[in-house]
Design brief:
- The chain has about 400 residues and is an alpha+beta fold.
- Helices cover about 40% and strands about 25% of the residues.
- It contains 15 helices and 15 strands.
- Strands 1, 2, 3, 4, 5, 6, 9, 10, 11, 12, 13, 14 and 15 form a 13-stranded mixed sheet that branches.
- Helix 2 (about 25-40) crosses helix 3 (about 45-55), helix 2 (about 25-40) packs across helix 15 and helix 5 runs parallel beside helix 15 (about 345-370).
Length: about 400
Amino acid sequence: MQPDVWSAELEEVLVRVGHRFGRVDLRRRMRAYVHGLLGSVGRKNGWQLAEYAGHPTPSGLQHLLSRACWDPDEIRDDLQEYVAEKLGAPNGVLVIDDTGFLKKGTTSAGVQRQYTGTAGRTENCQIGVFAAYTSPTGRALVDRELYLPKSWTQDADRCRAAKVPEQRGFATKGDLAKAMVARALASPLPIAWVTADAAYGQEWRFRRMLEETGVGYVLAVPKSQHVHAIGRIDFVLAQAPDDAWERHSCGQGAKGPRVYDWAAARLPTIADFDGDQPTHERWVLARRSLARPEEIAYYLAYASAGTTVATLITIAGSRWAIEEAFQAAKNECGLDQYEVRRYPGWYRHITLSMLAHAFLAAMAAMAAQADSRGAAETVPASSRRSPWRRSDDSWQLTAPHPAISGAPATR
């Protein structure tokens, strides 16, 4: 990408958000901060960013993150509008996941010993719940919330010291996810699908919310997930006939297509019994590793009638986009290299880092001219009466009694 194109696009981004900073000195510090996040800085903390910007001390940038008057939620809204313009597509997917930020001590807002998938174990850390937007054009982080454990929300003095707003009570990660999905759906982002891992997919309230808004989803669930009128999802899918399993790529990975064996079946609805045509259908899916067939992941899906299995598999595979966005934002934009301890500082650094990453995503999309690689390539591959039945070009599960289509099919 030509330097003048890079500079012009970055200037567009900075002008877009500049009016959110009421004073000239704050706008200059914001610009210096974002330039530093995008620059060749070894570790993007206060001192090194200040040195990169030519400041004698980090006090100005620290003031920007701590005491200055500006609202990071307004920057988030501008960011979502920017991503919609640069990466938006009618088949856009919103991906929900959390990531950990390893920290020492006990004063950083939300910090405690808790499990984080970032380290794969329990560590002293903060947990951030994020939303990423992905489309054939690119991917970018578009929202964030800091998870506050009950050890924090039940300690008013500790929250006060960390500048946690008084109105901020305890919220589960699922609650935070629902709030972000609601904001994203109200934003300019064109969203057709939502996907997430089992920590979010297993919550029936989360699924109900999506169904009520008419948004499709493909959500991972644990193997013990109960499917209404059918039973445990792993037991049901264990009964799938051999020819129900087909080999599909669910997207492009770092080492080529991500190929698995997949089984999918529509769930019964009352329309299957009274002859009415439903507008949406629910599905169960399973993904089986080729190298380790005992490793099976399970999904629940909700989609417009007529959606193909290949589409559901592609949406399931799009969940990796947020992992790639985390890695890029941490490696290239200092997402995890902050030194702030207070609640407002976390949101301010994270939001500006997300803005820098969205700029890089837009530049990559421009350079690739909306590269759409990763299209799925398909290679066909009990004593009780099996509930699996072939229906036209897909499989369907039968039930001993009609399921009620007006309520979530799983609990």
